[in-house]
From TrEMBL:
This is N-acetylmuramoyl-L-alanine amidase. It comes from Paracoccus caeni. It comes from the Bacteria. Pfam families: Amidase_2. Residues 53-171 form the N-acetylmuramoyl-L-alanine amidase domain.
Length: 207
């Protein structure tokens, strides 16, 4: 994910539409950046958090309810079957959780979905639990507040939303397109919106 595309995503998340998230530094992108920069400055904030963190990417591991050695090396944080969050590394540590879109993104993953299949759909041996989703929502809200991450489709999104929302090609990723209580996978942005609404409620409760 090049610097211009990341800047465009940040502008969109802040409410200043740069045009297509395409990595091209055109006049609309430059105007959106100038407006977003001024708006942040008026609040006494930089364009992005000093750590460089601007996004949260939701995942599932495709494994069991306990993180394995591979999971611990791939993600910043993992939510086990009991709903406990584990942070093997600091959020600023480099991790490879999203193809060509890791920079500035926290990889937050649910430990689940071992043996799951998208079509025909089967939950597999370790389906996502309601407790894991609750923890995902709560931890996302906390991170949004700590790192000044707006709750938007361009800054808080699932792995399955990366390609349609940020334009970065992925390899048939379908996490997270199904949640407890659903009969099967649905449109990734629709499911993402459902999760973001839950985070919005959590943020409201924290305010």
């Amino acid at each position: 994910m090049n610097a211009v595309r990341a800047q465009q995503a940040r502008c969109a998340a802040l409410g200043f539409w740069p045009g297509p998230i395409d990595g091209i530094d055109g006049p609309r992108t430059r105007a959106a950046y100038a407006a977003a920069l001024a708006a942040q400055k008026a609040k006494g904030l930089p364009f992005r958090h000093p750590t460089g963190i601007t996004r949260i990417h939701w995942h599932w591991t495709g494994g069991g309810h306990e993180p394995n050695a591979t999971d611990l090396k791939a993600y910043h944080a993992l939510i086990d079957g009991a709903g406990k969050v584990r942070w093997p590394v600091d959020p600023t540590t480099s991790r490879s959780h999203t193809l060509n879109a890791n920079s500035g993104a926290i990889g937050l993953s649910i430990c689940a979905m071992a043996g799951a299949k998208e079509r025909p759909f089967t939950w597999g041996k370790a389906p996502i639990t309601a407790q894991q989703v609750s923890t995902l929502v709560r931890e996302t809200a906390r991170l949004c507040r700590v790192y000044d991450i707006p709750l938007s489709r361009w800054s808080v999104l699932s792995h399955a939303e990366i390609q349609p929302s940020l334009g970065v090609t992925q390899k048939n990723k379908w996490d997270i397109t199904v949640l407890p209580g659903m009969s099967g996978p649905a449109d990734p942005i629709t499911v993402g919106d459902r999760l973001r609404e839950m985070v919005r409620c959590e943020l409201f409760a924290l305010s």
